[in-house]
Design a protein that fits this description.
The complex is a heterodimer of chains A (680) and B (343). Chain A has 680 residues and is of the alpha+beta class. Chain A contains 19 helices and 31 strands. In chain A, strands 18, 21, 22, 23, 24, 25, 26 and 27 form an eight-stranded mixed sheet that branches. Chain A has a five-stranded mixed sheet with strand order 4-7-10-11-12. A four-stranded antiparallel sheet of chain A has the order 6-13-5-14. In chain A, helix 4 packs across helix 5 and helix 6 packs antiparallel against helix 7. Chain A starts with a strand and ends with a strand. Chain B folds into two domains: 89 residues, no CATH class; 232 residues, BirA Bifunctional Protein, domain 2. In chain B, helix 1 packs parallel to helix 4, helix 2 runs antiparallel to helix 4 and helix 5 crosses helix 10. Classes of the chains: A alpha+beta (680), B alpha+beta (343). The complex binds zinc ion. Zinc ion binds next to loops of chain B.
């Protein structure tokens, strides 16, 4: 909202310069977003919080300045018009009293509609509004001055002798002032004559019954409409007007009749003569109850932590328009009708310290201690995961949690999509079901920027629908593309990621944190990983994620040219399965190493060799490892040559040569029998 | 007899020292070592054969002499070996450049989140988390956002299709709601996490961002406790000489509410063109207040017995103010030229 500082002075003669005024307003909760000049006049653009409709006017702001500096005098707004004039049979009938609890009005004849005076035009423009004609401008002036929306009808366009406030009929149509045709329904409140609707109550008037250049006789409406009714209608119609903005926050019901008088004052001033007053209206079937709040005298100190004298409290509240009645240990506080935000004692304390000054409150610490300790298993593990990969050359990324439908279709079952009802665009229309899409986009972006070493990880939530439930899963996704170690002057080659190097990074981490993993190759496991390197990661029988190389279609869709290796881990499963490490004594006797070089049919995966070794493993076989692979010259095409090391050791003594040979031969024989290996 | 042997050994020692002096290469050294110390053919080993010619009384004496000669020979040869090896080593130019081995790191958002969490963990707060898809009730209604109140407009909300009462949380306050519903005071928590608002991405808006909110509920908690707590926190985050300014504000779930500004750590209000404070000297940093009695009551806590304070801040805002990030979208583009600058 805009405040014209010159115009503000009409209501309170303050002496502050604009910077000091800005600070003063900020200290009581009115934020000045911008200080501008319109036509040589200083204007503040202020931000009004939704709880304070009483601040949406110059007079409302003046009232607050007065409370902060009661030595100034606040102009009293008084009128003494006699309301007994009744020269017409015209009537007002409220049919929906919860929608419209008070309806005041007046009929004025012989109003000369025309261009506004330069003074009025300039004022209206300083408010950021466009001057239309003198009568419309005055309705805006009244709104900006006193904070109550009024509506003015051309009474000669009204059919019959009655204004009716009723709910709309189903599918009733109305053509609004701005030319838009809107369909109404029975939840909407309208102002109507006996024939049709003349306005959507508190939102906007109808096209034909508004004031035009030809208008002579007018009906001025000043009413109170139910905030939530106005809000529902304005929201549904997608129409936010200055009037609806105020009504939905709460107008002052006690002010409607006075606003009529103030409007007549302004019209007389602008026209330079007195139009004929035909009839006053003020339908107020059930007077609104006064808001009374009881305030214990010691509560302000208790709630703020500082001693605020009773005198200070009462002075501040009175300066804000509250009426206090002393009742020994408490005050009975009557809330002014324009303060729709106040209904409990905390609200009153806020009023007191707001004016007293938040800066005068103490800074102390609560003695609160909580007598339990959290373990944060998952958080701790996530942090450890992040730190491990960060320290090993991986960069953490953070992506939006939204996917396009296409993204989700790559990585999961689209029937489990969690869709947004109001996304910001089709690229962001569903909640992500995987962290891969983000990672693949990020890899391509960085590859385009000439990064040749792109190792990333993201920790985040993915979303699934399960029947009529929504599931969230915390995942970590790790990826590598390009170099692990860049070429440099010392070791010119560098080291490029392949599946095995990537796997070593991942498994190295998992072993380090106490997780024994098992890879489970399953054909058709996923469409987004290459068939030959697509593995489920199993921990103790539970599926904990996958590892593999991204399949070409997906790779290209995300504009990647280099292979990308990925691993996605379910942090809940990992947290559950990880084991606390315990000390284990190492073996102090010397080891005996035996090599084994053999040919084996290609169809046997290494997993098969491990399986046989594990099956017949002698107790003293401490470890075994793959030392080399060879194919090509000297090896038949259907075979592969494998070179392995076996390490033997007994926990209690040194093994003799013969013992080791015996154990080793037995094992090798099993490999020969079960897998048909040929020793070389 | 023994004296002759003693003399012979002295000669051998002398000869050894002379021969060592003449050595030029590792090969020569190795053959010299063999010449003296080889177990089969070495000079010292051959002297062992003389042992059996001695009378029994002299055998131990000769044994001692021979052992010490052997020790002497080994020591001299070892000393010489170290010299020889060092001489043969190439020297390196240590000023040649290093190569960058590790370039990864955690994201700036993680870095800021952790530094804030650490401050509160130090102050005895616990960390509470909750789902990102929330019930409307937890995100709004129980937090005193009335069904038809304009306050709901201020937080443009993403809704979930087919689930009319579900939305993407617009703040992490629903975590506090869940915590209060399940825990009897005293309560002392912070809730970090992702939040969502329907904003088109631009330099200062992103539809997904991160918040940390705090909540303390106990008997006799007052507004001065809130001020004291935030002062300690913000000074830990922005420096000991940071001043705070509390301004009245409005949030549906707190009453009274306060906006908190910190003094501009860049210019202290002296620079009219200051990038972050624009010369005002103040930076809006967080929102806070005393927990609204209806919120306490909604969560099963008696507001006549307990009171509390709450506060919340955006991690992205800290990234802009403290770390000078000029465009929030950088935080989500994951350009390594950005990401690798931090963490
Ligand atoms: Zn500054």
């Amino acid at each position: 909202m805009r405040i014209n500082l010159d115009y503000l002075k009409k209501f309170i003669e303050y002496k502050y310069n604009k910077q000091d005024l800005k600070e003063l307003l900020a200290s009581i909760g009115i934020e000045v977003n911008e200080m501008i000049e319109v036509d040589g006049k200083d204007v503040f653009e202020v931000e009004i919080t939704p709880n304070r409709p009483d601040w949406l006017s110059h007079y409302g702001i003046a009232r607050e300045i007065y409370a902060k500096t009661p030595s100034l005098s606040l102009k009293k707004i008084e009128t003494d018009r006699k309301k007994s004039i009744d020269k017409s049979d015209f009537k007002v009938e409220i049919k929906d009293r919860t929608g419209c609890s008070r309806y005041s009005g007046v009929i004025l004849n012989s109003v000369k509609v025309g261009k506004s005076s330069p003074g009025l035009t300039s004022l209206i423009e300083s408010f950021g509004m466009r001057s239309v004609n003198n009568i419309v401008d005055i309705s805006n002036l009244v709104l900006m001055t006193y904070g109550h929306p009024i509506h003015i009808f051309d009474i000669d366009k009204i059919i019959g002798e009655k204004i009716i406030i009723r709910v709309a009929e189903k599918d009733e149509e109305i053509t609004l002032l701005d030319g838009m045709v809107k369909k109404l329904d029975v939840a909407d409140l309208v102002i109507a004559d006996e024939n049709k609707s003349l306005a959507v109550a508190g939102v906007m008037g109808e096209e034909h019954s508004g004031v035009s250049e030809k208008t002579v006789n007018i009906f001025i409406e000043s009413a109170w409409f139910n905030p939530s009714r106005v809000r529902i209608t304005s929201k549904k119609m997608g129409m936010k007007t200055d009037a609806s903005y105020l009504f939905e926050r709460g107008a002052d019901i006690e002010n409607t009749s006075k606003i009529i008088d103030l409007t007549i004052d302004e019209i007389e001033k602008e026209l330079g003569y007195q139009p004929e007053i035909i009839k006053y209206f003020d339908e107020y079937p059930e007077k609104s109850k006064k808001q009374i709040v009881s305030l214990e005298k010691d509560f302000p100190a208790k709630f703020t932590g500082i001693q605020i004298s009773e005198k200070t409290s009462t002075e501040i509240l009175e300066s804000l328009g509250f009426k206090l009645e002393d009742e020994k240990t408490k005050w009975k506080v009557e809330v002014p009708s324009y303060r729709v935000d106040i209904n409990k004692h905390e609200d009153l304390v806020e009023e007191i310290i707001r004016i007293y000054g938040y800066d005068k409150l103490d800074t102390t610490l609560p003695a609160t201690a909580v007598d339990s300790v959290e373990k944060y298993e998952k958080r701790g593990f996530l942090d450890k995961t992040r730190d491990h990969f960060a320290a090993n050359g991986y960069s953490e990324v953070v992506n939006y949690s939204f996917h396009s439908l296409k993204d989700n279709s790559f990585f999961g079952d689209v029937s489990r999509n969690v869709e947004l009802r109001n996304p910001i665009g089709s690229d962001y229309s569903v909640m992500r079901n995987s962290l891969l899409s983000g990672i693949l986009k990020n890899t391509a972006t960085n590859s385009n920027n000439d990064f040749s070493r792109i190792s990333l990880f993201e920790s985040g939530t993915v979303f699934f629908r399960e029947g009529n439930k929504l599931i969230e899963k915390d995942l970590v996704c790790i990826s590598s593309s390009g170099f692990e170690t860049l070429p440099n002057w010392h070791e010119s080659e560098g080291r490029v990621f392949d599946f095995f190097l990537f796997k070593s990074h991942i498994f190295g981490f998992l072993k380090k944190v106490g997780i024994e993993i098992e890879l489970k190759y399953e054909e058709k496991f996923t469409g987004f990983l290459k068939k030959e390197s697509s593995y489920k990661i199993m921990i103790d029988g539970a599926e904990a994620g996958f590892i593999g190389e991204i399949e070409n279609t997906v790779l290209k869709y995300y504009k990647n040219n280099e292979p990308v290796f990925v691993c996605q881990l379910d942090m809940d499963v990992l947290t559950e399965k990880k084991e606390e490490k315990k000390f284990r004594m190492w073996n102090r006797f010397p080891t005996a190493t035996r090599d084994l070089s053999f040919l084996i049919d290609r169809e046997h995966k290494f997993e098969k060799i491990s399986e046989i070794i594990e099956k017949y493993k002698p107790e003293d076989l401490e470890d075994y490892s793959l030392a080399g692979l060879y194919e090509g010259k000297g090896v038949p095409p259907e075979k592969i040559s494998i070179f392995m090391n076996f390490i033997y050791r007994n926990i209690d003594r040194t093994l003799t040569n013969d013992e080791v040979n015996g154990l080793h031969d037995l094992l090798v024989n099993k490999l020969v029998e079960d897998l048909g290996i040929i020793r070389r | 007899m023994i004296d002759d042997l003693r003399k012979e050994i002295e000669n051998i020692k002398e000869k050894l020292l002379n021969e060592i002096d003449d050595i030029q290469s590792l090969e020569e050294y190795q053959s010299l070592r063999d010449k003296y110390l080889s177990r089969k053919k070495g000079i010292l080993a051959s002297l062992m054969s003389k042992l059996k010619e001695l009378p029994p009384s002299e055998k131990p004496v000769f044994g001692n002499i021979l052992n010490s000669a052997k020790k002497f020979t080994e020591e001299k040869l070892n000393e010489f070996e170290i010299k020889l090896v060092s001489k043969s080593e190439k020297s390196i130019d240590g000023t040649l450049p290093e190569f960058d081995t590790i370039i990864g790191g955690t994201h700036l958002i993680t870095y800021i989140r952790r530094s804030i969490e650490n401050i509160f963990l130090n102050m005895g707060y616990k960390i509470a988390e909750g789902p990102e898809i929330e019930f409307d009730e937890n995100n709004f209604t129980l937090l005193n956002f009335k069904e038809d109140h304009p306050a709901r407009d201020e937080q443009d909300t993403f809704f979930i299709k087919d689930f009319p009462d579900m939305l993407l949380r617009t703040h992490t306050s629903p975590v506090q709601v869940r915590y209060m519903k399940n825990t009897k005071p005293p309560i002392k928590i912070i809730s970090p996490g992702k939040v969502f608002r329907k904003d088109e991405p631009d330099a200062t808006h992103v539809p997904v961002f991160h918040q940390i909110e705090g909540l303390l509920v106990d008997t006799d908690i007052n507004f001065s406790h809130l001020k004291g707590t935030l002062e300690i926190f913000l000074r830990a985050l922005f420096g000991d000489d940071t001043s705070l300014r509390f301004r009245p504000g409005y949030f549906p779930f707190t009453e009274p509410s306060a906006e908190v500004d910190i003094s501009c750590f860049l210019c202290g209000g002296t620079d009219n063109k200051c990038r972050i404070c624009k010369g005002s000297g103040w930076l809006e940093i967080l929102g806070s207040g005393m927990v609204h009695r209806e919120v306490l009551a909604n969560c099963g806590i008696d507001p006549d017995v307990y009171s509390g304070f709450a506060f919340g801040l955006g991690i992205e805002r800290i990234a802009m103010l403290k770390y000078g990030v000029t465009d929030l979208r950088f935080l989500f583009e994951n350009d390594l030229r950005f990401n690798n600058q931090f963490g």
